[in-house]
Write a structure and sequence with these properties.
Residues 1-40 are annotated as: Disordered. By secondary structure, the chain is an alpha/beta fold. The chain is 25% helix and 26% strand. It is globular and about 65 Å long. The two termini are 24 Å apart.
């Protein structure tokens, strides 16, 4: 729990600690990966605002309201403590894909954890249905083990007019029976399906998803304004990477962008990498929807956390140059190489968003959408000890997941 810290007498325990043998780490020290911790001196971002010179107590896998006996007292003065990031839309990283083997999936998960994403939904890309069904089975096992938070199917139920980096020959209409096949294959671990709701079967598929507690996301769509409203009324609640792979906002044909931004039932995904969106477009979305209806995502592909080169995105070859991923054939942007720590830093330093609003978009909102707000998304007693430590320049310095350091901070 974060509280305003009183200045302790030299050599004394911090105010509110139990006494009882806590260990103070000296200059240049590294905390142990596990064990009770008491982090002190940081700007701690809570749902109610930022506590300056605050503290956060961790015991076991949870945040606790009382500093535990025997805790390591870690002075992180001048740093920021924010909740672990939650990514709703991510295709891979570290040179590996969520469409690959279990080892590939774990490689990608660990890559993003090292960049602050403590909860992640694994996204697939358009492929043959039997391959998607098989992958859903593999990913559901990893979800059951707690490695991922669930599965997002992006395609094949999308518009050929707005296919982006999806193989056109594998696209199909959103037949509810086919959608149900993927949900069943995921064994209760399907979290979201992106579909073009204007296609035949689209509205019925939205209703099916809503009935099964799966997020229906409107994306890769050529829908008009009225068609989009119909889909929202049927139960669609997310806009897949708003602005990208959908008709542009037009004064006579406002299209899906206007409908998605104006409806309070919809959360809009934004890829804040400086490539997918002009800063003015991001500002327009953020100001119109408000912080409570924005979820920053990566839409990352294999190259995230790795580097330039040739990669595969499903069956399509991608060239990454200077951090921008494009299809070798056709040149369409093919996901991103973004990590959420970079999205955070850009939001605060370039887009000039408040730290609190950025935390809402990176942690609280996606946690709410996933139905996990009781466990993650904010720094509160009883919740998982998932946190990110940032320095004064918003560079990542430490990551903790369920009480264990994934990135152990090196204290100055």
């Amino acid at each position: 729990m974060a509280t305003e810290r009183e200045t302790p007498a030299p050599g004394s325990a911090p105010s509110g600690a139990r006494g009882g043998g806590e260990t103070r780490l000296g200059r240049g020290s590294r905390p142990t990966p596990t064990g009770p911790h008491l982090l002190t001196g940081a700007n701690v971002v809570l749902p109610t605002g930022t506590v300056k010179n605050g503290r956060l107590a961790i015991e076991g896998t949870r945040i606790t309201g009382t500093p535990p006996a025997g805790a390591q007292v870690i002075d992180v003065t001048g740093h920021w403590l924010v909740p672990g990031f939650v990514d709703l839309h991510n295709h891979g990283g570290g040179g590996a894909s969520f469409s690959g083997s279990a080892e590939d999936v774990l490689t990608a998960v660990r890559t993003h954890r090292a960049h602050g994403t403590t909860t992640l939904v694994a996204s697939t890309v358009t492929d043959e249905m039997d391959l998607l069904v098989r992958q859903a089975g593999l990913l559901s096992e990893l979800a059951e083990q707690g490695e991922i938070a669930g599965i997002h199917f992006e395609g094949p139920f999308i518009s050929p007019c707005r296919k982006g980096a999806h193989s056109e020959g594998l696209l199909r209409d959103p037949d509810p029976a086919e959608v149900r096949k993927l949900i069943d294959a995921a064994r209760g671990r399907a979290k979201m399906v992106t579909l073009a709701t204007e296609l035949p079967g689209g509205i019925d598929s939205v209703r099916l998803l809503a009935e099964h507690g799966v997020i229906a996301a409107i994306g890769h769509t050529d829908a008009g304004y009225e068609q989009t409203i119909e889909a929202i009324d049927a139960g669609a609640t997310v806009a897949t990477h708003l602005f990208n792979a959908m008709p542009a906002l037009n004064h006579r044909a406002p299209g899906p962008v206007a409908a998605l931004l104006e409806d309070e039932r919809v959360t809009v995904e934004l890829i804040n990498d400086g490539v997918h969106l002009h800063p003015a477009a991001l500002e327009l979305a953020f100001r119109h929807a408000g912080a409570d209806r924005v979820a920053f995502i990566t839409d990352a592909m294999d190259a995230a956390g790795t580097g330039d080169g040739r990669y595969m995105l499903g069956p399509l070859e991608v060239e990454v140059s200077e951090g921008v991923a494009r299809l070798v054939e056709g040149g369409s942007i093919a996901g991103s190489t973004l990590t959420l720590d970079r999205a955070f830093r850009r939001a605060v330093t370039v887009d000039k968003l408040s730290v609190e609003d950025t935390v809402t978009a990176l942690s609280a909102n996606p946690a709410r959408l996933l139905g996990l707000s009781d466990r993650i998304g904010s720094l509160e007693p009883g919740k998982d000890a998932d946190l990110v430590l940032l320095d004064a320049d918003f560079e990542l310095k430490g990551v903790m997941r369920q009480g264990e350091w994934v990135v152990v901070p090196q204290l100055p």
